[in-house]
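TASK: fixed-backbone design
INPUT:
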């Protein structure tokens, strides 16, 4: 093999053009000379010269030498329709910021990429496509995403053919800004265009042929036990603080057939729990069907053990929806119902379209129908105009309703929303109120979880030895407890539902050990041993 020299820092320099030039020279040397590819495949230089690059050079040299015919993709036999494979597009990596809607959108885009032959990786250094799905609900989330996008310039320069794709709500709101600030981006897809991602990705990706020399495989099954299914997009409300209606548009609903088809797809891939997603998910309507009809239909799909939904709006928590939650076993008696404030003055200023009294009456109705239900919420502190009395009313609502957990947000002004024109409170006041509210919610959450110690819960294992109860408590099934179980020595597996005796509680989680009936396996074995030693 011919000797060659590569500047050791070529891929680490600040100038991406220099790194690119060094890589081009390296490829020319290897392409023109008789390189020992079996040795090169075991070499890696600063994550630039890796086996994918070697495969690409080896393949193209075989094509040019006539050892391998040019590939064809659907054209007449023997007539190529592409100049060669795009090996760098083997794997993709997704970074998701924001809510469950964004997670579902990332999953959907990932399925489109997998359908084109790409494989998802959890290592960005192993990827050829880096997809950043952004959030713009709060400034902090947007800033974090933009910071990561900036760092991707160097990631892209380290390997020829790499592509950077930015999607989501921040991409919708700031598309021109992103393209100007980060000219190395290959594709920017706003939240309103997510459903067109398949066509947009088709234009982005070069076609490539199958090469038996490449050691990759396409995973056709996603082993996630809990899956998201988007049933609608957009929002018809105009809450004063919220940017979502501006970046996701007005409400549009998927058909019942489309939704149930996706539910069946997720179940066939291993899902046992389905979460229906929408900005105001319980406002769903399509033809004569309403949200309660959809819940019942989804529960009838074979293989569905549990159904959840987020995020509902109090206005659409109708008697039919509550009755369905109470009567259909698959629909979990757990609800995340944002309240945002306990002050009627603030609720009006936020344009939430309900009062404190309406929200409290609704919770009481649900708890009568489902005495064991869990309830969580969202609260915004420091909204413009919030007085000390307004804040005290929020604290009193938390005490009154005893939320099982909650997400407390410091108000963040979003350009383009009505609230952005209002005078903001001093940041010190916002921080103080956030801490007070957070401490109260955490105290109540811990008190409620401690009451579960000693009870037995049905837990659906999601990953490793971690699962959730029907009421959405996260439970760690201790492995050391499993190891003592002579009668059942194996570990639990994802998708399995087990009875768990709760032995400990933290603010956000529970701990327990597998339980059988009224006794643990350990105690059962002791009792069984004593029985066998008794005379007949």
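OUTPUT:
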């Amino acid at each position: 093999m011919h000797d060659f020299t590569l500047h050791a820092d070529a891929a680490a320099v600040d100038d991406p053009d220099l790194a690119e030039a060094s890589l081009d020279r390296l490829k020319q040397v290897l392409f023109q000379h008789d390189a020992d590819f079996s040795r090169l495949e075991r070499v890696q230089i600063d994550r630039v010269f890796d086996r994918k690059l070697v495969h690409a050079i080896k393949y193209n040299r075989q094509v040019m030498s006539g050892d391998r015919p040019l590939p064809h993709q659907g054209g007449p036999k023997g007539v190529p329709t592409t100049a060669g494979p795009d090996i760098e597009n083997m794997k993709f990596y997704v970074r998701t910021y924001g809510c469950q809607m964004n997670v579902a959108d990332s999953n959907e885009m990932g399925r489109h990429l997998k359908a084109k032959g790409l494989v998802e990786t959890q290592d960005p250094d192993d990827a050829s496509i880096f997809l950043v799905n952004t959030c713009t609900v709060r400034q902090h989330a947007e800033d974090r995403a933009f910071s990561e996008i900036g760092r991707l310039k160097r990631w892209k320069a380290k390997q020829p053919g790499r592509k950077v794709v930015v999607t989501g709500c921040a991409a919708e709101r700031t598309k021109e800004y992103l393209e100007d600030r980060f000219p190395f981006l290959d594709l920017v897809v706003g939240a309103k265009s997510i459903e067109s991602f398949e066509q947009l990705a088709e234009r982005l990706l070069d076609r490539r042929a199958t090469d038996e020399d490449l050691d990759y495989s396409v995973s056709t099954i996603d082993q996630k036990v809990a899956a998201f299914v988007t049933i609608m997009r957009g929002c018809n409300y105009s809450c004063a603080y919220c940017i979502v209606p501006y970046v996701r548009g007005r409400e549009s609903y998927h058909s019942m057939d489309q939704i149930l088809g996706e539910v069946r797809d997720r179940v066939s891939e291993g899902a046992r729990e389905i979460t229906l997603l929408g900005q105001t998910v319980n406002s769903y309507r399509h033809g004569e069907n309403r949200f309660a009809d959809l819940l019942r239909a989804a529960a009838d799909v074979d293989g569905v053990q549990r159904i959840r939904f987020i995020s509902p709006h109090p206005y659409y928590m109708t008697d039919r929806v509550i009755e369905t939650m109470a009567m259909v076993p698959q629909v979990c008696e757990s609800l995340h119902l944002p309240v945002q404030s306990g002050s009627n003055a603030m609720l009006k200023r936020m344009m939430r379209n309900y009062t404190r009294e309406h929200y409290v009456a609704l919770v009481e109705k649900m708890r009568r129908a489902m005495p064991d239900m869990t309830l969580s919420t969202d609260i915004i502190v420091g909204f413009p105009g919030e007085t000390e009395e307004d804040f005290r009313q929020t604290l009193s609502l938390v005490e009154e309703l005893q939320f099982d957990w909650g997400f407390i947000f410091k108000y963040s002004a979003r350009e383009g929303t009505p609230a952005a024109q209002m005078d903001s409170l001093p940041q010190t006041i916002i921080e103080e109120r956030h801490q007070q509210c957070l401490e109260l919610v955490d105290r109540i959450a811990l008190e409620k979880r401690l009451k579960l110690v000693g009870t037995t819960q049905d837990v659906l294992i999601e990953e490793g030895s971690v699962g959730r109860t029907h009421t959405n408590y996260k439970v760690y099934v201790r492995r050391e407890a499993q190891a003592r179980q002579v009668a059942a020595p194996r570990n639990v597996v994802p998708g399995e539902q087990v009875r768990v005796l709760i032995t400990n509680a933290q603010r956000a989680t529970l701990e327990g050990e597998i339980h059988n009936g009224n006794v643990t396996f350990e105690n059962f074995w002791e009792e069984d041993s004593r029985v066998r030693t008794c005379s007949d």
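COMMENT: DSSP finds 18 helices and 21 strands in the chain.
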